[in-house]
Design a protein that fits this description.
It is built from 8 helices and 8 strands; from the N terminus they run H-E-H-H-E-E-H-E-H-E-E-E-E-H-H-H. The protein is α+β, with helices and mostly antiparallel strands and about 180 residues long. A hairpin with a 2-residue loop joins strand 2 and strand 3. About 35% of the residues are buried.
Length: about 180
C-alpha cells in the first residue's frame, strides 16, 4: 500500500472542512506543524496561510457556507457561530448581518478581519453542529436576537425553523411563550 504524502493528507482534511486545515488537525493526523508552513511557501497558491494556525487549500472549491466556517476557525478553539449569524446561515428572518457573529470562551491569538465580531462568553453555552460548523442552537439564537430583530420577524423565523426541523417541540413551546411577551 502506497503511503500518502503530507499534501494528500492535508487535502483530505480540507475536503471535509470547507477547504480549511488547522495546525491542530494536521498534527492530529501526523503532519508536523512546520510542514504546513513549508507547503504554503513551496506551493504558492495551493495552500495559503490565512491566519494563526489556519490554512486554506485553494484546490477545494468555495461553497456558500465556507465564509462562516472560516470565521469560526479564525476565532480559535471552542469558537462557534452566534446570534444573527446562526439565523443568516439558515436564511431565517431575512437577516443579513454586517458582521459574522462568533462567540468563544477564550480570546483569539491573532487579529480578526473587521467582518468577524468575536464575543467572549463566560461558562458553557449549548453548541450544536450545522453543516459541520459549530453554532449556537437556532432556538437560542432567536431568543438572543430579541433586541436587534423585530418580534414579527423572529416569530416568522421560529416558524420557518420549526418547519425545517431546526427546532424541536420543547424548544418550540419555549419560543412561542418567550416571543409572545
Amino acid at each position: 500500500m502506497e503511503q500518502q504524502s503530507y499534501r494528500e493528507i492535508l487535502r483530505e482534511i480540507a475536503l471535509d472542512n470547507y477547504g480549511y486545515v488547522t495546525t491542530r488537525e494536521a498534527i492530529a493526523v501526523g503532519v508536523p506543524a512546520g510542514e504546513l508552513a513549508k507547503l504554503a511557501r513551496r506551493r504558492k497558491g495551493e495552500l495559503e496561510n490565512i491566519g494563526y494556525g489556519l490554512y486554506r487549500d485553494t484546490s477545494v472549491p468555495e461553497t456558500p457556507l465556507g465564509y462562516l466556517a472560516e470565521a469560526v476557525l479564525r476565532s480559535g478553539k471552542d469558537a462557534y457561530l452566534h446570534r444573527e449569524s446562526v439565523l443568516a446561515m439558515h436564511n431565517l428572518a431575512s437577516i443579513n448581518p454586517r458582521h459574522i457573529k462568533v462567540a468563544s470562551p477564550r480570546p483569539t491569538r491573532s487579529p480578526l478581519p473587521r467582518s468577524i465580531q468575536l464575543t467572549k462568553v463566560e461558562g458553557k453555552d449549548k453548541i450544536t453542529m450545522y453543516e459541520g460548523i459549530p453554532a449556537q442552537p437556532v432556538a437560542d439564537a432567536i431568543l438572543e436576537c430579541r433586541k436587534e430583530v423585530e418580534p414579527s420577524r423572529l416569530k416568522q423565523a421560529a416558524q420557518e425553523a420549526r418547519s425545517q426541523g431546526l427546532i424541536m417541540s420543547a424548544e418550540w413551546k419555549k419560543l412561542e411563550k418567550e416571543l409572545s411577551r
